[in-house]
Amino acid sequence: MFRPKLPDVSTLPTPTVTHQQPQAPVASAGRPVAPYVGIGAGAVAAVVVVGIVLTALLAAVAVSAVSVAIAAVVLRSLVNGAHKR
What is the helix, strand, coil percentage profile of the chain, to 5? Predict the structure, then answer.
C-alpha cells in the first residue's frame, strides 16, 4: 500500500551527449609573457614600499609639527609669565 512505484527499466531517460566544436587556437604575439609578469610584480612591490615609506615620513612630520607647536605654546607662556613679574 505504501510502497513507491518504480518506473520500468525501458522508460529510464537516456543521457544526451552534446558535441563541442573545437575552438580555434589563439594566435600568440610571439613574445613570452613571463618576463612582463615579473616586471609587473616588481613594480607593484616598489609602489607599495614607496607608499609605506612616504606614509611613515608624513606621520613623522606631523608628530614633529605637533611637538614644535606644543613647545612654542609652553615657551610663550613662560616668557609671558616672566615679563609680568
Answer: 65, 0, 35
